[in-house]
Amino acid sequence: MGYDPFSPLAPALINVLCLPAGRVTPRTFDSYLTWLQTSVGIVAQPLSKEQKSQSDHKGTESSHDSALLFRFSSHSNASFVQRTAFFEPNRQPQIVVGIIDGSSLPSEGFEAELRQAQSRVKQVFEQAGGIETPSKVIVFDATNIPSTTDAVFIRTESANSNTGGLIEWLSGAAASTGNRVLDVLHSQEVELPQSVSRSARLNGAEPRPDSRAEDSRRQSIIPSFGRTNTETPPAPEDQIYASTSGKIVSAALVKLQMGHWTEALDRLVDGARAARDANSPAWHAKALEGMLVCLLLHAWAGREFQIPQDCYPTTRGYSSSSAIHSIADANRVIAEKFTGTNTNRLSGLTAMLPGLIATIMNLYERSAMGFDNGLPQILVCEARVRLAALLVTVRRHEGLLNAAALDALVGSRQELNFPSSLEPSSAGLVLRSSNLSSLLVESITEAQAQLSIQAASTIYFVICQNLAELQLERKQGFYLKDILQKLPPALIEARKVGAAEAAVHPSINGLNAFISGNKGHTRLAQGMRTLLQLAVQAYELPDLSKLQHEPDTEDDHVVTKTRLSSWLSVFISGDIATKLEILRLCVRVSDALPDLIGSIQFMSLILFVTRQQITLFHGSSNAVPLIAAEEQTRLANGISNAVIAAQRQGNSKILANYWDDFLVRGIELYESPSAGKLMPHSSKDLSLTTTSGTSKKDPFIYNPFSGDRKASGPIILVKDEVATFDVVLQNPLEIDIEVESISLISDGCAFAAQTHSVVVGPLAAQAFTLQGVPKESGTLKIIGCKAKIKNCYERTFTIYSGTWKPPQIIKRKQLQSLVVDLPQSQILELKVVDPLPQLQVCSTSLVQRSVMLLDGEKCKFSLILENPGSIPADLVLFSYQDSVSRQLQDALATKDLQPADSYEVQYQLMHRQAIKRITPEPNGTQKSTRSAAAVEAQTKKTFDFEILGKPGLTEAVVLIDYAHLGKPRNEIEGTFYTRQIRFVVNVTVNGSVDIPRCGVLSIPETTTASSRNEAEAQTNGKASTAITTNGENAAKGQDQGQCLLQLDLRSLWQTPLSVTIETSSPSFSTDGPPTWTPATSTTLLPTQTSRTLTLLPRIYISDPHAPIPSLTPSNNRQFVVSASKLSLEAELATREAFWYREEVCKRLRIRWKEKYTSGGRAREGEIDIRKGIRLSPRMIDALRVEHVQVSFDLLPAREEDGDKFVRNGKGEFEVKRNVFARLIVRVQNLTQDDLKLLLRLQPSLADQSHSLAMDLSKKFVWSGVLQRVIKAGVKPGQTVESELGIVCLAMGAYQVNATVEEIRGRKREIEGVNGGDAERRIWHARRPALIRAVE
C-alpha cells in the first residue's frame, strides 16, 4: 500500500512508512501491516474552532468532521522523492512507524530494546534522505510488559484494541508534518519536478546511462504516438509567478492531507487562478486535480459543498487524446443540464466530471511539452491513469457518483458516522468501455521511452487492472501479450547497463551475488511477477497462488481439487496453444529480469498445463503432452538451474511445485512367498479340521484354510517384521522424473517407514517397492506417500487409484457450474498383530521341484519344515491345489452337467486326488492323512507327500497353514491368524496305457459238474419240489452266470509295458478292502493295441433306476426333482447304464509296469478304467441279471421212466419218443415287491423258421394251457413252479420259451423322476428249454 500514485485520491493520502524495528517475522509483520490499514486507515478528524468560525463566516455547513486518510506501506520510492517534494508532498514518507512483535519481547530489559528500536527507526529514515519526520514504535500483542511513553502498545486479538492512543498520535504526527512542510514552503522557492537528464546537468554531472537520451535510443516497449514539441519556453517573469502559484497549491495540498478540506479547497481555487495567470499548466492541473479530490471527499463525508467556477471547462485545449474528448462530448448535454448553483451537488459534480478531467489532462500534457523544464513523463502518466481510473469506478456503478461509488473510492464510512445529507445524484454519465480503454492505453504511449522498467511495468499493471474492470478481457490479453513480447529485450538491455555500473558480468550467474541483497531488485521482481500473473489470469490460465501447495497446512484433497479444476478450465476454454505461448513469454520475462521465483513458477505451470491425461493406466500411455519432449527437457533443466542459482544465493527454500497431483496411483501389500500369507480365522474354523489321521476329510466341505479364499477386512501385518508394499507411480511427461526420497505415510499405530529413491520412466505408470516396519499392534492405515521430487518441494501425495476423464462440455456456461470430482481415492487399511512363528521349507527330496510321471503312476517326496524362531508352531495344517482339480471345480460350478457327469467329476475330486500327505503304517504300508501337525521352536520336521499322475496335471501345490495358538483348541476364542506357505511342484504327465474301446459279450452256459450232479439228483427223484424262499441274499449268492469283458489296451509309452487285469469277487460285507485276483496278463509294445478277454460274473442290481447320487453333501437333499431335460426313457436308460458301470468299475482293476528297465526303479501304476468304460444297452443286457428269473426242468411223469431222461446241461434235455414228461417252469422273484404274474409258454421246433417252427400238431403235444396265472403270487425272493405235461411224438429238437408278465400294470414310482403311465412289466427267459426226442 503506502502512497498509491494511481489512486484517484492520491493527493489526499498521508504516507506512513512501516519498518520492522525489532523482533518480528516477515509473516507477522505483513499481518500487522494489514491490521493497521484496516483498523486505522481512515481516522475521523474534528474541525478546530478557527476552522468552524471560518466556515460559518463563509456560510458553509461546518458542523461535520473531516477525516485523515492514512496509507501504510513497507517501502518508499527514495530515488524520486526529492524531486517531487513540493509538487507531491505525500510521495515521500510523512510518518515513520516501527513494528515489533510484543509476544517475542523478554520480560526483562525490554526498555533498552525499545529505545534501540526507536533510534533505529530514526536512523533508517535519515539515511533515506528525508526531512525530520515523526516516528514511533508500535508494540503489538505484548504480554506482561508495562506500557511506556516510548512506544504504543496494541492488542489485535481483543475486541477493544485500544487504538485511541495510536489514532491520537497519528493525528498529531500528521499535523506536525504538515506544519513543518508549510514552514519550508514559506522559506524556500518552489520549483516543478524536473526530469533526470536536466537535474543531472544542473548538478554538473554527466548523464547516467539510463537518462532520457539513453532511453530514447532504446527499443520502445509500446509503439510511440508522440509528436514534436512546439511549446514556447516560458519567460523569466513567468517563472517567478509560477513559483508563487506553486507555493499556494503545495500549501493547499498539505491542508488537504491534514483534513482541512474547506480551507484546502479555497486555497486550491486561488492557486489555480495564480497558475493560470502565470502560464504554469503543471500547477494549474495540480490545483484542479486537488479541487476534484476535495469535492469528492466533501461528497463522501456528506458535507455541503459549492463547485468552484474554475472547475467548469472552457476550451478543448491542445490535447492529442481523442478518447477523453469523446467522453466529454458524449456527456456535454448532461454537463450543460446540471450546471448552475441551484442543482443537486452530486449531480453537478457528476455532470462536470468528464469535462474537468479533460481539462486536467490537457494541462498535464502541456506541462510535459516544455524543453528542459517540462514535467517528468512519469508524473503525467500517473495522473492520467488515476483520472481514467476514476471514470472506470464511476462506470462500474452505472455512471453515477453515488454513495457506493464514493465508498469504493475512499473507503467505508459506516464506523465514522458521517451524515448523508446530500441528495443522490441523478446525472448518469455515458462512459463507453472502448473510450475508457483507449484513454488508458494513451496514458503511457507518449511516456514509454522515458520510463524505467520498474515504473513502466507498474503502470502496465494498473492499466490492465482497469481493463479487467471494464470486462475487456480480450483487449487486455492482447495488450498484455504485446507487453510481454517487448519486455525481455528491454530487460536484457537494462541488465547490461546495470551490470556495467556494478562492474559484474551481465549473465545470470554473474548477477546472482549482486542481486541477492538488493532489495530494489526484489521489489522489481515482485512487481513484475504481479504483472505476469495478471497476464496469466487474462488468458484464463491457473492462478499461481491457488496452485501453491504448502505441506502440512492445507487439505491435500482441497488443493488437488482446485488444481484439477484449473487444469480443466485451461483445456476446455480458449486456445491451448496461445496459452502456452503466454506462459513461455512469462518465462522469458522472468529469465531476463532475472527472477528465479517467477521462472520456477511459470516453468512448473507449463509442465502442469501440458499434460493431456491426468491419470495413467498401469504401463505406458499414448496421451503425449502438448509440448515436445525436447522442450520438456529444457524446462526441467531450467528449473534445476534456477534452484541451483537460488542455493548459491543462500536461499535453499526456492523450489518448484510438482506439477502432477496424482503421482501415487495405488499401494498394495506385497506378500512374500517366503514369509507366508497371513489369514484371519475364527475359533469355529478349528472344528472343521481333523485331528486324527484315520478321519476322512470330505473335499466338498468348506475348508477355511483353502489358499483361494480371500480374506475379508483389513490385511494383516506382524509387529516388528518388515512389510513390503507395491507402489504404482505415474509420470505424465516424456522425461524421467527423479524422486529423491519417497516414504509411506501412515495413520494409527506406530510405523517406521523407510525412505527410498526411484526414477519414474517417461509417460508411464510403474510399480516400485517401499518398505516399513510396524512397531505396535493395532490398526494401521496407509494414506499416501511423502515424496521429494528433484528441485521440487516435499509434499504429501494421496492415493488416487481410480481413473479420471474430463467431462464433455458443450457450452461455455456449463463450465461455471461444473463440479469437478476427484478420482477414487484409496486408503489401505491394515491390522498389526503380535509376533507369529515363521516356518520355511529348508529342503525337499525333489531336485528341481519338478517331476515327470506316467498316467496312473505315483511319486513320493518329502518336505523338511524348519522353525528358526523362538515361537513354536503348534498348529500346522496341509491343504492342496492342482491344475486338474481347478478345472474340475470350474466344471462343477457351472451347474450344467448331467448327474452322471457331475458324479464322475466329484469322484475324481474325492477319490483320485493329485497330491496328498501320507504317513507310514506299522505294517510297512502308507496311507493318506489329513491330521494336523506341529513344529517346535528351533527344530525341523519331515513330512511325506504323494503325487498321482493324471492327464492334464501341470502343477501341484502344497498349502501349509501354521499358527501359534498357545492353548488347547477348545479354549480358543475370537480371531486367530495363520501364515501360509505355498510349495509348488511342476508336473509333466505322459500317457501310459489307454482303453480306446470296450465291450461285453454273453456266453453260453457250459455243463459243469454241479449241473450234472443236480441233473442226476433230479433224475433219481431226490430234488425237492417245494417253493424256494431263500430271499435276496440267497438269490445273489447263487450262480447267475458269467459274461465276457472285452478291452482294447493301447500302449502310449516308449518302452514295453506289462499289463495285468485283476478282478474282485462280489462281497456283501462292507468291512475290509476287496480281494483282487489276477485274471489276464499281457505285454504291450510301444504304440501297440492288444485285445484282452476277461470273465466277469453277471451283475444283479436291485434298483437300476435309483437316482444318481451326489458326493457333495450339500446336494444330497430329499424330494429333489431331476433337473435333466431328458425324456423318461432316456433318463431311466442313463441311470441304468450308470449303476452297471459303477459295478463293473468296482470289480475291475488294471495295473501296468515297465517290462524292461536300463537301471533304476521300474515305473508302475494303475489305469483309471473309469475313463475307458462306457456301456451300451446291449452290453447291459449281457451283464444284467433279470429281476424275475425263469428256469426249466424236465422230469418223467412216472418214476419207472426215469432212465429215459438225460440232462445234458442247464436247460438242455434228452428224452425218449412217446414218453410222458413233466416240464417244470420255475419263476423266481428277485425284486422287493409282491408280483402277480401271468406265465406264457410257447413250444416250437428248434432251428427252424417261424412259419415251420409252429407246425407242432403231429410232432409235439401238451396237456393243459400254455398261458396261465400264478395264482398265489410271488413273494420277494420266492421261487414258484408251474408244470406242463408234454409228449414228443416224433424225433427232433424242440424248444419251449417262457415269458412272464404282470397281470396288472402299475404306475412307475421312481425317485427323482415324474412317473409315466401305468404299464405291465414283462420278463423273458434268458434261454428257452431245449428238448431232444430220440428213439
TrEMBL record:
Its main location: Golgi. It is found in: Golgi apparatus. Keywords: Golgi apparatus. Residues 219-232 have a biased composition (Polar residues). Residues 349-649 form the Trs120/TRAPPC9 TPR region domain. Residues 1189-1333 form the Trs120/TRAPPC9 fourth Ig-like domain. Residues 195-239, 1006-1025, 1063-1082 are annotated as: Disordered. Residues 664-820 form the Trs120/TRAPPC9 first Ig-like domain. InterPro entries: Ig_TRAPPC9_Trs120_1st, Ig_TRAPPC9_Trs120_3rd, Ig_TRAPPC9_Trs120_4th, TPR_TRAPPC9_Trs120, Trs120_TRAPPC9, Trs120_TRAPPC9_N. It holds the Pfam family Ig_TRAPPC9-Trs120_3rd. PANTHER family: TRAFFICKING PROTEIN PARTICLE COMPLEX SUBUNIT 9. This is Uncharacterized protein.
